[in-house]
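Tutorial handout. Part one gives the primary structure; part two gives the three-dimensional structure as tokens.
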Amino acid sequence: MNQPIASFVPLTTTLMDKHQESPGIFTLYLKLNTSAPFNFSFGQFNMLYLFGLGEVAISIMGWRNNLLLHTIRAVGRVTQPLVQLEPGQQLGLRGPFGYGWPLEQTKGKDIVFITAGLGCAPVVAAINHTVEHKQHYGRIVILQGVKHHNDLLWQTQYDHWQNTGNCQVLLAASEEYKHRYKWRLGMVTELLNFAEFDTENCAVLMCGPEIMMLAALKQLAKLHVADEAVYLSLERNFQCGQASCGHCQLGPFFVCKDGPVFHYPTVKPWFGLSGI
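Part two.
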């Protein structure tokens, strides 16, 4: 897996643009106020902070036109004021932290992305990378689940991926049905029954609620996908990003430092256990 490239020196960034994706969810476009290069791996996260309020861990959603992208759900003490910022205002950034997706190691394999809800944010940049470099991969399969079809973020992005050769996009809405060619009623894990990929030569990249990932793991086992083919992006209460506070401990691991992306066999004994 990609080695973490962490910077513990806080940077000042400027909000250049803000886009509302859906009610309560915004993407921030940040300019780094430094001439130093910002190197990150897809799947890593940053700690964004507001001066005098605190900081919060947010996955890196992408890099576009020399701007860093973070998609945020406004639900907490820090995230709500973050999305209220206006272009030109400044905020702090530490990072990047953790391990990212193993995109180099999985070349030559079919790539299956399984996400639900806002869990798609940590893999969007990875999906874009594999689509843009599809000559290095086999078939690309994207499975995304939401409650209602209006909850789907980046609709045009999914349309673009669907129209890309050798890429299959399957979407599921658990509480309604929308009559479009790619929507199905049910859970995202049920989409695995319709996914077309080589179960013996694939890499599965998952991110979302743990209950969803546990259900997907059971379905993958039925399809004879080996545990060694699966990678998970886990969420915990990240407070420091340096494995110092202990809030994100999972068995012997600290998710902020040893993850957030894990090879499933590494965390299998602890993943899904109550109280961990």
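Part three, for discussion. The CA atoms of residues 146 and 152 lie 6 Å apart. The mean pLDDT is 87.
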